[in-house]
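User: I'm putting together a small comparison set for a docking exercise, and I want a reference complex before I start. The sequence is below, and the ligand is adenosine monophosphate. Could you produce the 3D structure with the ligand included, as C-alpha cells?
Assistant: Of course. I'll restate your input first, then give the C-alpha cells for the complex.
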Amino acid sequence: MGILVVGSVALDSVATPFGQVERALGGSAVYFSLAARHYRTVRLVGVVGDDFPEEYVRLLRESAVDLRGLQSVPGQTFHWAGRYDHDLNVAHTLDTRLNVFAGFHPVLPDSYRASEFVFLANIDPTLQLDVLRQVERPLLTVVDTMNFWIAGKRDALTEVIRQTDVVLMNEAELRQYAGTDRLLAGARHVLSLGPRALVVKKGENGAALFADGVYFVAPAYPLEEVRDPTGAGDSFAGGFVGYLARTGDVTDAALRRAVIHGSVAASFTVEDFSVRRLVRVTRDEVGRRFQDMRQFTWFEPD
Ligand code: AMP
C-alpha cells in the first residue's frame, strides 16, 4: 500500500563528539523515506531551493523515492544546525533557517492523494493540516513533531493530533507538550485528544507504545558505536510506517511489531553521519536485526 510523507528536506550542519558534517543531506522527510523504502515506495512532498545539490536528488531517486511532489523553487534550502554533547539523547539546535519552507504550500500530485498511509513528518503543523485536507480516506495517519513547533505552533499541532491515528514524540517533547514529567499522565493526555496510539521514543532507552489497553516497550538495538543521532526519530517512523504499509495490517499486534521495525531502522541511521549508513542498508541486514530484537526481548515464563 502507498506511503505518503510530507516533511523537511534539509541541508544539515551537525557536530557530535565523533565528528561533524556541513550542509549534509538531512530533513525529516528524507530520513523517513530512506528508512521506509525497504518496505514500500515512498511518495515525498517537500520543497528545496536552487542550492540543493543535484547529487542528493539523484541519491533519493536511485533509492526509489517518488519525487513528483518535491518542489524546487528559487532561494535557499531549509537549513538546520545542531550539536550533540556526550549525552546523544539531547540535540542542541544552534540554528533553524526555514528559508524556502517559509513560503511553501504543499500540493499533492493526483497520484498521491489515494495513499493509504500518510506520515506527517516534523514540519510546520499548518503544512501538516494542509496535507490532511488533500488526502482521500487514508487507512492510517501518523504524525511526528519537535520542540520548535510545540513552542511556536501549539494550537495547530493540537489540531493535527486530533486528526491523526498515531502520534510519535520523544520523551522531552511529550513532557513539553503535555506539561508533565510523568510519562503515563502525558500519554493519557495525548490519547484523550483522539489518536488511537502514541509512541514515545526514548533514544538509547528504546520506545514505548500506548493505546487503549496496550502498553508495549521495546529496547533500542544495542550498538558498539553511535556517531550521530540526527534522524533517528524520522528513521524510526520510516521503519514503523513502512512495515505497516507492507502488510496493510493496522491491528494492535501489527503496531507492536512496527515499533520493533522502527527501532531497527533507527539503529542504522545513528551509526554514521547524515544518511551515510542508511543508504547502504540491505534488506538482509534489516531482517537480521529484526530477528536479533526478538531474541533480545524473548523470555521463558516460569
Ligand atoms: P530527528 O529524527 O528528530 O533527529 O530529526 C532530525 C531532522 O529534523 C534533521 O535532519 C533536520 O533537518 C530536521 N529538522 C530540524 N529542525 C526542524 C524543524 N524545525 N522543522 C522541520 N525539520 C526539522
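Residues 252-269 form the longest helix (18 residues). The domain at 3-297 is CATH 3.40.1190.20 (UDP-N-acetylmuramoyl-L-alanine:D-glutamate ligase).
User: Thanks, that's exactly what I needed.
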